[in-house]
Amino acid sequence: MKYQELAARTLIDKPDATYSDQDLMVIWNAIGLAGEAGEVAEIVKKGIFHQHGLDKGKLFKELGDCLWYIAALCTKLGWDMEDVMAYNIDKLRERYPEGYRPEDSLKRVDVKTSEAQNWKDDDPWKYARGEDV
Ligand SMILES: [Mg+2]
């Protein structure tokens, strides 16, 4: 059996739930953010790996597009974007009290122990296989 036929076994014909306008707008903005992040990645990929030179003008504009979608998501979710930014800075202060250091990155003090262990694991496929760790 071809991959496409095997994959189709898990395909659904229509949404298996109803979605509110709020749900749809959050999804819309999340997809928009992913698209804009993809544009950022493409500019960097072409600029560095394809050796086109980094187009900082385009990158600047695309980062703004990312921010627009982040602001939109915050608005739709009733959050102040400043709170999201402050929370992120607090998390980074906890994780990297002396600034970034690889050993602090491995410790992941702000993540549960089992979750942090996943990052240190040398066989990530065991999680995909469903093996209990
Ligand atoms: Mg864009």
- The proportion of residues in beta strands is under 5%
* Helix-strand category: mainly alpha
In sequence order, what are the helices and strands, one letter per element? HHHHHHH
Cα-to-Cα separation, first versus last residue: 33 Å
Keywords:
133 residues; binds magnesium ion; 2 domains; extended; mainly alpha; single chain
Overall description:
The chain is mainly alpha-helical. It folds into two domains: about 20-80; about 80-120, no CATH class. It is built from seven helices and no strands. The chain has helices at about 5-10, 20-50, 55-75, 80-95, 100-105, 115-120, 125-130. Helix 2 packs antiparallel against helix 3 (about 55-75). Magnesium ion (MG) binds near residues 36, 39 and 62.
Summarize the structure.
The chain is an all-alpha fold and 133 residues long. Helices cover 68% and strands 0% of the residues.
Secondary-structure blueprint:
Elements: H1 3-8, H2 21-49, H3 56-77, H4 81-95, H5 102-107, H6 113-120, H7 125-128
The structure holds magnesium ion.
